[in-house]
Structures are given as C-alpha cells and as structure tokens.
Amino acid sequence: MKGKRDQIIDTTCQLMEVQGYHATGLNQILAESGAPKGSLYHYFPEGKEELAAESVARSARVIEERMRTVMAEIDDAATAVITFILRLAEQVEASGYRAGGPITAVALESASTNARLREACDAAYQSWQSVFAEKLQQGGYGEARARRVAALVIAALEGGIILSRSQRSPQPLLDVAAELELLLHCPPQ
Q: 69-86, pLDDT tens digit by residue?
C-alpha cells in the first residue's frame, strides 16, 4: 500500500504528463491524490518545484525499468530497441494520446527558466540514453557511436511521441521504429 507521499508523487506524474508543469496546480494535485493540504508541505517543504523534480525522477525510473526489461528480454540490440518503441506506440495509442511523454512537457516548459527541473529532466534523458547505449555496446557498437546512436533514439522517440499525440495516430512512432530499424541493422562501427 502506498503512503500519502507516494500518492502525491504518482498523481503529479500523471498530471504533468497530460497537462504539463505550469497547468498542474497544487490544489488539483491534492484533490486528485486525496491528500490533505498539510501533507504536501510536510513531504515537500520547498513546494511545487521540489514535488515536480521528484515526479520527474519517479517517471524517469519507471520508464528506465521498462526499457531495461525489454533490453533484457531480447538479445539482439536492434530488435530490443525497436520492440521498446513499438510497445511505446501501443501505450500512447491505448492512452487516447494523452500519455507517452512524462518528461517532455516539463522539459519544454522549464528548461530555460528553472535549473532544478532542467537538471531533473536532463538526468532522466541521460539515464534512458545510457540504457540504449549499453545495449548497443553489447550488440557490437563502439562506446562513442553507441552513445551517439542512443541520443538519436531518444530524440526520435520524443519527437515521435509529440507527433503521435498531435496527430492522434501511432504512425509517427511506427515510422520512427521503421527508420531506426534500418539504421540499427547497419553493421556497427
């Protein structure tokens, strides 16, 4: 059973993914989490910014765990990366195009104005990039190229999510998967 702190963070994760950082208010978080007002400042004395940074970190860990699960299930690096993208496309579609980019909105809204949230988003993207880079290295890519290709995968994923949500179609993510599959099946150098 989750405690109030976890309920507050989980609710914040969900709300920020759907509506972004600025549109997510503390009163809405409290109402939807069922937490009393005093508990928010008890657990997060620095307020919304602290809560948002914790929520970004939680979302990042959840996605990283999903990535690592898929990477562990499939031996071939290219197939593992593509499988993750295809599963993500299914999740985005199943959510009614409301979910799929838990960090994106926060990164876009706050990267130039809030160092704490920018750093939390950067840490999230770096952790995801490292998962793909590790798998690509296991597949024969050199360290530098694996890192660059992993950055490309993250950038393509984020862009694909934005396009899929905007178009209300999984096709952009399916296109990302198809093009990355061609790239990833080229011999690593």
A: 999 999 999 999 999 999
Residue with tokens 């914040």: 12
Coarse DSSP helix, strand, coil percentages of the chain, rounded to the nearest 5 percent:
75, 0, 25
CATH number of the domain at 130, please. 1.10.357.10
Q: Is residue 173 part of a domain?
A: yes
pLDDT digits (tens, 9 = 90+) for 18-71: 998 999 999 999 999 998 888 888 999 999 999 999 999 999 999 999 999 999
Q: What is the pLDDT of residues 86-123, one digit of tens each?
A: 999 999 999 999 988 889 989 999 888 999 999 999 99
Q: Residue 107 is encoded by which pair of tokens? A: 């990164």
Rounded to whole angstroms, the Cα distance separating 145 from 124 reads: 20
Burial status of residue 79 (CB atoms within 10 A of its CB: 0-12, 13-18, 19 or more): middle
Contact 60, 127 (CB under 8 A): yes
Range of the domain at 161: 57-184
Residue 43 to residues 7, 100, 150: CA-CA distances in angstroms? 11, 27, 35
What length does the chain have? 189
> How many folded domains does the chain comprise?
1
